[in-house]
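WARN  no MSA supplied for this record, continuing single-sequence
INFO  ligand: magnesium ion
INFO  echoing inputs
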Amino acid sequence: MSAAVDTAPANIAATADTRDGRAPWALTAPALMLFVGVLVIPLAMTVMLSFHDWGQYKGIEPVFILKNWREIATDPYYAEMFWRTFRIALLTTLITAMFGAPEAYILNRMSGRWKSFFLLVILGPLLISVVARTLGWALLFGGNNGLVNKLLMSLGLIGSPLPFMFTETGMVIALAHVMMPFMVLSVWTALQRLDPQIENAALSLGAGSFTIIRRIVLPQIMPGVLSGAIIVFSLSASAFATPAIIGGRRLKVAATLAYDEFLNTLDWPLGAAVAVLLLVALVLIVVGSNALIERRYAEVFR
Amino acid sequence: MSFLELDRVAKQFGPQTVVDDFSLTVGKGEFVSFLGPSGCGKTTTLQMIAGFLDPSRGAIRLEGRDLTAMQPAKRGLGVVFQSYALFPHMTAAENVAFGLEMRRVPRAECRERVRAALEMVGLAGYEERYPRRMSGGQQQRVALARALVIRPSVLLLDEPLSNLDAKLREDMQIELRQIQRNLGTTTILVTHDQNEAMSLSDRIVVMNQGCIEQIGTPQETYERPASAFVSQFLGKTNDLAATIDLSATPRRLAAGSWSVPAPAGIAGPVTVSIRPERIGFGDAGIAAKIVTRIFQGNHWLFQCESECGPVIVIRQNDGQPQPAEGEAVRLAWRPEDMSLRGAGGVA
Ligand SMILES: Nc1ncnc2c1ncn2[C@@H]1O[C@H](COP(=O)(O)OP(=O)(O)O)[C@@H](O)[C@H]1O
Ligand SMILES: [Mg+2]
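INFO  complex generated
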């Protein structure tokens, strides 16, 4: 600092130039190195791994072949599994949007003390492990011993336990529960940006409460709902703990399949291929829908 | 005469009484302003008329019908909010058309009325603009057009000009008054700006801490303020302590060395309230020395230290020589230009 002060103006300009060129790199270097070290390198290795060969007895062979990718492309098992993964993610997203948006709206209309209390109730589960929350569902609905199943059967309302474990329905319900806070938070943020008098304005113009929600509130919080949907969709499609507990090894999704290939079959290259495909598909979907949303709402909300 | 009537309206938030005993009748086509400092309950009163808040006590009637029993959506009042509260996802035309759609006005008529409303506020050609792309003044005009297009029986304006800069605010004041005159819409304006209230209104309701201090024409409230609060709030004023000299006959009212025959029916210590522009420099009157002299274009502002305390004097810049700083002067005024308040209140 003092050296820079002492030097002639020309020198100051020169140091300023070099500083302009290098300083950002120098300053971001630690974070950049961490990023490269823990994300880019493992990712590149995973991509490379997906092109290696593997055999029951020979293990992983570092060659370049398309065997794994061909298997995924041709075996309908993988198509069905990926289709199931995205179907579950989509349904979860729809359910969280359907319940989360009204939840956030009602929360926003509550008066001070109740508002903070219920915000805590909604966000509180984020502090509890996903495993614990999903196990809760398993305890309630899991087979003959599930609490709710036992109760309903002893009341004679149902003859056999409700199918929940190892079903897509169960997985969607549990996932929706786990993901709900993200949707509520996202819509809540959008609601904060609403003019507090805007509903009164519509009211004074003769609109009923349903019209106000449909024509005034909903269009304005739609970007919030959509960004919440992107978060929930990508988290659900790549979720591991909940599908692992509810679906077990019977009903597999992309994440649990990749896990199984890595740790049970030990076919790392195939697991890597599944993981890479899931990642690429998710990135495409998220980036694509984000671009669509940006374009749709740029005019209004910029 | 009475078109809109507020009858001893009060509003309570928990233990706090925000508006109390508010009674007012507004004639058809009249322009009334609620004037008072921030937090005195103006918005609350306006929102009770609009129906966004329910009064704790009292009644609000429009043409004899009880308004409080009516849903806000059914009242047919036009409201312009301080923040404008435009619908950001709708264009200017869609914003204005919203109230007409709610009334199921046929499409062709709706389009024509929206066009006419936007033209009236000087926004022809801005139909397809979104609010975010408009200036504050333009948004304000859209809000006004949106409130007026439904032909409201009463137009309620909550500090509509306070977000505009000074020049634009003056222009909008003139325009607002013209539009209101042309349409003949009964209008209530909420403002904390006394100039705005005086230049726009037929009558002013001066409020303080939830209570009405005075209702009157701008001239009445300015020249015959009913309380110290009103005289202080409506422009600059000098409050001088004066006494009634009972020993003299006829009795005399004296402030320092200035004195006049005392009006009847008043006794004891009083406060003389006199506007700075009504004080003149003369040969007789209270003795004072000019502390500062400020030139303000069309007038001079003098701050004087007198035998009765500090006094402000405003003189028209009419080309006549004015006393200089430090000069000793005598201040006098005509008895009819002052208002007197006794210790017991209004005289
Ligand atoms: N919803 C509310 N709950 C409690 N107090 C309120 C509420 N709205 C307004 N107040 C209080 O009422 C008083 C008057 O408010 P307001 O009518 O907005 O004043 P003004 O418009 O004259 O500035 C203020 O002291 C404010 O704090
Ligand atoms: Mg206000």
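The interface with chain A takes residues 47, 50-52, 72-79, 81-83, 85-89, 98-99, 102-103, 130, 132, 146-147, 150 of chain B (CB under 8 Å).
INFO  checksum written, moving to next record
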